[in-house]
Structure formats: C-alpha cells, structure tokens
Design a protein that fits this description.
The complex is a heterodimer.
Chain A: H1 17-21, H2 24-30, H3 34-43, H4 49-61, H5 70-81, H6 87-96, H7 98-106, H8 114-119, H9 130-147, H10 151-163, H11 173-185, H12 191-199, H13 202-207, H14 221-230, H15 239-248, E1 252-255, E2 265-268, E3 278-280, E4 283-285, H16 289-296, H17 300-314, H18 321-333, H19 338-347, H20 364-375, H21 379-387, H22 414-429, H23 440-448, H24 454-466, H25 471-479, H26 482-485
Antiparallel strand pairs in A: 1-2, 3-4
Helix pairs in contact in A: 3-4, 5-6, 5-7, 9-20, 9-21, 10-11, 12-16, 14-15, 15-16, 17-18, 17-19, 18-19, 20-22, 22-25, 23-25
Chain B: H1 4-11, H2 26-34, E1 45-52, E2 61-62, H3 67-72, E3 83-84, E4 90-91, H4 96-103, E5 107-114, H5 122-131, H6 142-153, E6 163-166, E7 181-183, E8 194-196, E9 199-201, H7 204-212, H8 214-217, H9 222-244, H10 258-271, E10 278-284, H11 292-316, E11 323-328, E12 349-354, E13 361-363, E14 381-382, H12 383-394, H13 399-403
Parallel strand pairs in B: 1-10, 1-11, 5-13, 5-14, 6-7, 6-10
Antiparallel strand pairs in B: 2-4, 3-4, 5-12, 8-9, 11-12
Helix pairs in contact in B: 2-9, 7-9, 10-11
The chains are: A mainly alpha, B alpha/beta.
Chain lengths: ~475, ~425
C-alpha cells in the first residue's frame, strides 16, 4: 500500500522545473543526470528498478488527463477491480479515497456478503435438468457479479474462469458450479495450492479428461494444457515432459453419482496411480501430480506468464518487460501468492498512468453488470441477461475452448457491438431502478467519468433536447457511447 | 426488466425502411446491390469449414486395408461400412454425402497434410494454419491478406460483407485491416430503435455522430476500431435486412445442427448477392482424448448432412460453379489410440475440397502408418501448397505474394 498514488503527488505545477523535465526516457538515456541520480538514490531499494522508475515518472508528471480527478481514479479502480459502480457505490468509495478504497477491495475477507448470500436464489441440482441448471447458474453468477459487496473476489473468480477454464459442453452444471466456488474461495491465494485443487476438481477432471487417466493408460490432455496454458506456456517443455507428467497425474477418479456429469467429488485410488519412475524436466522420481505442480510453479516462465495475464486483465495489454519482471519477482518472493501480485498491480503507478485509462474493452460480463447496475434487474432478468451475453461473445460457463476467451479487441466487431448496444437499449427501457430524474451531466458522471468527446456530448445534448423527459432513452444513449464500451 | 416476450418482440420488430439509411451507407448498399451474381459472374467464393480441436484424420479418410490401422485402433477402428474410394482408403461410414460428391467427381482429398516441425499445441498450430506463417503463427490471417489484395486491385466492392463468418467472433484467418462481418443470424444483426411512449425512435444518426467522430478523440487503438465498427455493422445490416425476405432455401437443412445453421446463413448471404468472397464456419468438438467414437461419429454425420444441404441449396440457386468448400483442422490425432478410448494430439490429416469447380480425386501421398515420428504421422503435403493452389488457380490471386513464398501447386481444379 505504501506506493498508492496520493492526490498530493498529482500536482505537477508545484514541482520544481528540473523534476518536471525528467522523463522516464531521460532517466534511462542519461543515467548520470543529477536529477535522476538524486531520485534513484532516495528511492532505491535493493534491485527494484521498476518501482524506482515508476516513482520518478509519477513525481515528474503526476496523474495524467482524466485520472487527475480522484473520483475518476476511484471509478477506474472499481471498473478494473470490480464491475463498475452504481451511483451510490461510487459515492461511497469516492468518499474513502483511492488508497482506502483499494485496501477495502483487496481485504474483502473483512467485508460481509451476507445480504447477497441471503438474496441469491438457491441452486438445486437434485434431479434438475441440465439445461435448466445452466441458465440458473449463469443468472446466479451474473447477479453475484453485479450485486456483490466484494467486487475483487468476483472479478478474480472471472479471471480464473477464463484461465483455468472448464465448460458445460463437457462438464455438468453441478460440477462447474462447484469449480466456480473453488475459484472464489482461493481467488487471491497461493497459485500452487489453487492448481493442486484444480487438478482434482471434478469439472476440470471431466473437461480435460483426467478422470480417464489411469496407470498404463495415460491421457495427455490435462498435462499438456497445465504447461501450455496454466503455467509456463509453449517453448518451456518437451513432448516427453507431456507424456511423463500425464503418468504422474494418474490415480485421481470421480466419486459418488455414477453419471459422469453429476458427481462433484474426487478421490485418489493408489492402484490406479502409475508409481513407476518418471523423468520430468530432467529430474527423475516417482512423481505425483502435486509434485509436477511443485516443479512448474517456481519456474520463471510461470511467474512471467501469470504476471502478464494478471496485468493485462487489470491494467493494459502488452505490459513493459520491467513491469512483468517486477511482478514476477513479487510472485516468487511471496511464495506464489496471487494476492500479492494483484495488490502490486492495483497500487503501482502504472495502474494510474496515461497508458491505462480506457485501455481495455469492457468484456461482456463487465458491460452487462455495469448496465444492470445503472438500470436494475430482478432474479429472472439476470437469467435472461446472462443469455443475452452469447451474441456479445461471452456466454458464462461456455468458454470457446480450453484457452478461455481471447478478449481484448476481439470483444468488438460489428455483430458484438450491435448486441451490446441493443442490450443497453433493452435494459434501459425496462429500467427498474427508481432513478430520480437524472440530468445528462449526472449520467455522464456515473457511467463515463463525465469524460466524453465533444461530438458525443453534442449528440447527447441534442437527443436530450429533442426527447425531453425520456429518461430511459437518455440512459441508453449514454450506455451506447464508444466511451462506455471501454473500461 | 426483461421478459422473454420482450426479447421475442424485439426480434419481430419491422425492419427499418431503406429510406432511413444514412447517406454514409449509400455507397456500400449500392455496391452490394450491383454485385448480384449476374453482375459479376466470375467472382468465386471460398467457404472454409474449420474442424476445431484436431480432427481424427485416420478415422475420417480411413486406411481400411492397412493392418497397422487396425492394430493402432483396437476400440476406435471402423470395421464396417467404410465407404471405399479405392483398395487402400475409404471414407467414414457417416460421410455419405461426401461419398456422393466423390462419385460425381466434385470432391478432392489431399492426404497427409501438415507442415514441418509440427506443434502439438492447439493454439500454436491453429495460428500457423490461420496465418500460413510456420514461424510462430504471427501476422494477418491468410484470408485477411486476400481480402486486402481484393481492395488493392479494386476487384471488389469494399464493404463489410466481402468476408463473413458465422458466429460472434471474427476468425483469425480473416483478420486484417479489411472489415469482416461476423453474424449469428440475419435478424440479430440490426440496431433496435428506442421505444419512446410507444413510438419507435431511430437512433442510427445520433449513434453515428458518437462513433463517426471517435477516431480523432478516442484512445488508441480503440479510436480507429470503434470509429469504423458501427458504420460497417450498419452497412452490412442494411444490406442483409433488405434481402432477407427474398431468400428461400432450396434444400432441407438439418435442424438442431449448429453447423447446418451456420452454412445456411452463409448460403443466404451468397444467394442474396451481397458480394461475399470468403466465408468461414466452425464445427467444434474434435478434441476427443476420451470416449472418442460416439462423439466423432456424430460430428462427421452433422458435417456431412450440413454440407450436403449447403451444396444442394447453392446448386438450386444456380451458384454451384462459383462456390468451393475447404475443410481444415489444426492437426490430426495420434496414430495409436490412448487408454481412454480416445486419441491424443497428432500431426498430419486429410483436407477436403468440395464443389463443382473441383477436380475430384486423391492428391498427395498416403502417410505411412509404420514410419512414424514419435508415434505421429509424417506429413506428405504442406498445407501451404493447398492454400497456394486455391489462391492462384481458384481465386486468381498472386499466391506467392500472399503466402510469402513459393509452394508446389496441386491441380485441384477442373481445367
């Protein structure tokens, strides 16, 4: 928390001229410049160059553009660490200020979600038809995303659903619902613990076939994706590593109900485990699946890959190499703690830099949750709204494949943009939130940081003038802006 | 907020009249109308069918006379009903429509297709096939480059329906600066008006004022993206809505079959004469590491029936000579089945090219089942040879420029 940007540091006008002129580039280029040397001498801590450079950059420029306004910073924080805000939520967090709001979001264990837990529908899987259950859990999760008092917990659950994904095209609703709870309970925990749990999670065991992986009959599916998608990425293992580690993961089977898609328990059966010697990444031993995970998680490639994924999810794509290295250091020094990395991302200056603002496209989950925060919804509406995410390209619990959703600019094409705009229209027209007659300015403040292009503003003012009293139409028009599509 | 009826009602709202089309779209719509089959009789259309997940080539084009096949596949082998093509290989029993095309001389099968140093990663290998770049699979899609080429030479109306894809995402093989329209249905691809006190209020003009001006003021890279996306979507939407009512399928497409729905959608855009040059559909579900047989059998049945209806529909509209279908998958499967009655990731597999322009027959050489590379087939034809032949001979485009190299040409087309 010690380097959460503060309002005081955001006033470049008060800085001495020499500080204002020092850019990151100048520091890197001249190295010996007095200004840079002073700054580095004051801030140097070990070999943590990234942090030093970020501090220098911040001292130099302060917050860029719209992020100079603390209310906008909090709004940005809530969009990234959560699913946006209702006017009331924005007021509450803005009153706390950026630093306290960040702490509250990170320390969500201290926040009670009892009101939501009472309100959410009970999902009953006994004898339910799978199709009905799919819609029920989609609506349940969307409601949870929209109404939770712990936005970061839910945001991380969505992150894990995209990275360690399993889908209803193979696994059953009860299984993916159990996996969803696993992601939530270990959302900011240690990555090795999470991977060990996921390896034995019934949805994953069905989705990537470990439930069939037996001694003498190895199945490569999980072992390959564990390395390619969950840990190191391609280029850091061989086909022999795939085959050998598949043998290590033998022995875990599903328990309980005889139907493959219904059971939500798993167990280790020693006689099904291949306990012969395996050679994995040049080490030889009688390895289990947990042993393989303990060899993969400490690798630098894993630290860098997960750091890049997290930074891209929260801040912006293609992070600078020094940011990735800094986060990978954080990951390794904290014994693979995801919470430590996320805390670092949300508190580093890069999270409030000029590159970060509106540098992401709202995913359909973010877009729909924020839309409902503005318009309101009941339980039944959540089920329908979750289904309306399909033409936007993100149907919850139906990832397109084992790599999850590609995200980024692929969220936007002609077809998905029309689906997004039409959803905003339908939501606004069925608004259940008793909005006081909000002025255009108030809507712009809550939904787009009161920061839209002049042409957008002109068009909105013209619409408001031509359609006086059409509160729903005006809300829709604000949510249809290009600015609202970004996060 | 919503009711199911509200959603249904929205889908049934009347199509906006042509007179409300903002002038910025007039060119695109006019160009689309001019590009009817009669107006440009020579433009050829390529339809790609992606078999996502890695299709089991050995259980698609089956080396039924090879003892090694039967040994490698104790539970997965097809013992009966193989649709024999010669005394070595035959088609899976569920590919009856393709067999009929073979008999009519309209199915070319390229055997053992792959590339050097095959990746067994779904995503690395897909990128390689999508970009035709075997060094890392980066860059524009190979069909995206073809669409760029069409724009450069002015051979096509430059609008958003040149490249179309069934679904909600633009496939990487079509990615480039040229717009591509992804759509799940014609009715879904349209902007709903606002309902103000029972009156339908058109919102295209105010929305276009937001988006049209966003390029100059919005943050990179989204300014440019969002600037053009809405106008292209509305342009495609108007063209599609205008012709939707007139399309009548001339074949019975299977119901409850996503691949059939996708191909029917593609057929509609082609029949409507909207200037489509390349189309993409995906059939997923081929990554069967366990219990493969029932799943794979069903996938091939769905594929076969959907393709048969599609070809019949196009022929019924007199368009058979202008359309060719090509299938691809990121890899085949391991020769030996695994212990879960499934197959792990493999390498080479056959590609199918289907349609009246095709010179039917087997191409390339059959990969050996005994001379393997770590249990995987050694490829015998580079997929870029197939792409080159299709680009050069069928689409009349400069293949070596678009693929960044020269590849052996295969005589896949009728003279």
């Amino acid at each position: 928390m010690d380097h959460v940007p503060t309002v005081a540091s955001s006033a470049p006008a008060r800085m001495p001229a020499w500080k204002r002129r020092v850019s990151r580039r100048t520091v890197l280029a001249t190295g010996g410049a007095a200004a840079a040397a002073t700054a580095v001498a004051v801030l140097w801590k070990g070999n943590d160059l990234t942090q030093v450079m970020d501090r220098v950059r911040d001292l130099t420029h302060g917050y860029p553009g719209a992020l100079r306004d603390e209310r906008v910073r909090v709004s940005h924080l809530l969009r990234r660490a959560g699913f946006g805000a209702t006017p009331g939520e924005l007021d509450r967090y803005a009153t706390m200020g950026t630093t306290a709001a960040t702490t509250a979001l990170l320390d969500y264990q201290k926040v009670s979600n009892a009101a939501l837990d009472t309100k959410l529908p009970i999902i009953d899987f006994s004898g339910a038809r799978p199709a009905a259950s799919a819609g029920a859990i989609q609506g349940w999760w969307l409601q949870r995303m929209t109404e939770t008092a712990r936005p970061l917990e839910e945001k991380m659950t969505l992150f894990w659903h995209g990275l360690l994904t399993s889908g209803l095209d193979k696994a059953g609703p009860a299984q993916v619902f159990t996996q969803n709870a696993l992601f939530r309970s270990m959302a900011l925990g240690n990555f090795d613990d999470l991977l060990k749990a996921v390896s034995k999670d019934p949805a994953m065991m069905v989705y990537l076939d470990t439930e069939t992986n037996r001694k003498g009959k190895p199945n490569e599916n999980y072992a390959r994706e564990l390395m390619e998608l969950f840990t190191t990425g391609v280029g850091h293992y061989t086909e022999i590593d795939v085959r050998e580690s598949a043998r290590a993961f033998t022995g875990w089977t599903l328990t309980g109900a005889r139907q493959l898609r219904l059971t939500t328990g798993s167990t280790f059966v020693p006689r099904l485990h291949d306990d012969a010697s395996k050679t994995f990444m040049r080490k030889t031993g009688n390895f289990t699946g947990d042993d393989i995970i303990e060899m993969l998680v400490p690798l630098r490639a894993t630290a860098e890959r997960l750091s890049t994924k997290l930074f891209t999810f929260f801040a912006y794509p293609n992070p600078e190499p020094d940011i990735v290295q800094h986060l990978a250091d954080t990951f390794q020094k904290s014994r693979y703690n995801v919470g430590a990395v996320v805390k670092e991302i949300l508190t580093m200056n890069a999270f409030y830099s000029e590159k970060v603002y509106r540098a992401l496209v709202k995913s359909p989950a973010e877009l729909v949750a924020q839309t409902i925060k503005a318009s309101g919804a009941d339980e039944r509406s959540y089920v329908l709204a979750a289904q309306a995410m399909a033409p936007m390209g993100q149907l919850l619990f139906y990832p397109p494949n084992v790599a999850g959703w590609p995200g980024g600019t692929s969220w936007i094409n002609g077809s998905t943009l029309l689906a997004r705009i039409n959803f905003a229209n339908a939501a606004a027209q069925r608004m259940t939130v008793a909005l006081p007659a909000q002025s255009l300015d108030q809507l712009l403040h809550t939904l787009v940081d009161a920061n839209v292009s002049q042409s957008t503003k002109d068009a909105l003012q013209a619409y408001a003038k031509e359609h006086p009293g059409d509160q729903a139409g005006l809300l829709f028009m604000v949510m249809a802006t290009p600015e609202f599509q970004l996060n | 907020m919503f009711s199911r009826r509200d959603f249904l009602k929205q889908g049934l709202l009347p199509v906006m009249a042509g007179s409300t089309v903002p002038s910025v779209f007039a060119n695109g719509v006019a160009a689309a109308a001019a590009d009817s089959p009669n107006a440009s009789p020579n433009s050829r259309i390529l339809v790609l069918v992606q078999l996502a997940g890695g299709n089991d080539g050995l259980n698609t084009l089956i080396p039924y006379q090879d003892g090694a096949y039967h040994d490698a596949r104790p539970t997965l082998r097809q013992d009966q009903g193989v649709l024999t093509l010669n005394n070595h290989v035959g088609l899976h029993p569920n590919l009856k429509g393709l067999k009929a095309s073979w008999d009519a001389g309209q199915l070319a099968i390229v055997q053992g297709v792959g590339y050097p140093n095959a990746s067994l990663s779904h995503f690395a290998s897909m990128s390689i096939w999508e970009t035709a770049n075997v060094q890392g699979g980066i860059g524009d899609g190979w069909l995206g480059r073809y669409l760029n080429y069409l724009d450069q030479v002015g051979e096509s109306p430059n609008h958003a329906l040149e490249g179309i894809s069934a679904g909600s995402l633009v496939p990487p093989e079509m990615r480039s600066k040229t717009p591509v329209t992804a759509l799940s249905s014609v009715k879904g691809l349209r902007l709903q008006p606002v309902n103000e006190h029972g009156t339908q209020v058109d919102v295209e003009n105010p929305l276009m004022r937001f988006y049209g001006a966003f390029k100059s003021s919005g943050p990179a890279p989204f300014g440019a993206l969002l600037d053009t996306t809405l106008s292209e979507a509305l342009q495609a939407s108007h063209a599609l809505q205008a012709t939707d009512a007139s399309y009548q399928a001339k074949a019975a497409y299977p119901v409850n079959s996503p691949i059939a729905s996708s191909l029917k959608l593609v057929a509609e855009t082609i029949v409507s004469g909207l200037g489509v040059r390349v189309a993409h559909v995906t059939l997923g579900g081929f990554d069967n590491h366990a219990r493969e047989k029932p799943v794979h059998d069903k996938l091939l049945l769905d594929l076969d029936q959907a393709l048969a209806a599609f070809m019949q529909d196009l022929a019924g509209h007199g368009l058979a000579d202008r359309v060719m279908v090509m299938t691809w998958s990121e890899f085949g499967r391991r020769v030996n089945e695994n212990g879960s009655a499934g197959t792990d990731h493999g390498t080479a597999a056959p590609m199918f090219l289907l349609g009246a322009p095709v010179k039917g027959g087997l191409y390339g050489s059959e990969p050996s089942l005994s001379d393997l590379d770590n249990g995987n087939l050694k490829f015998t034809t580079d997929f870029r040879s197939v792409y080159a032949s299709v680009l050069q001979d069928y689409l009349k485009a400069p293949a070596s420029d678009l693929l960044g190299g020269h590849f052996e040409m295969l005589p896949l087309l009728k003279a």
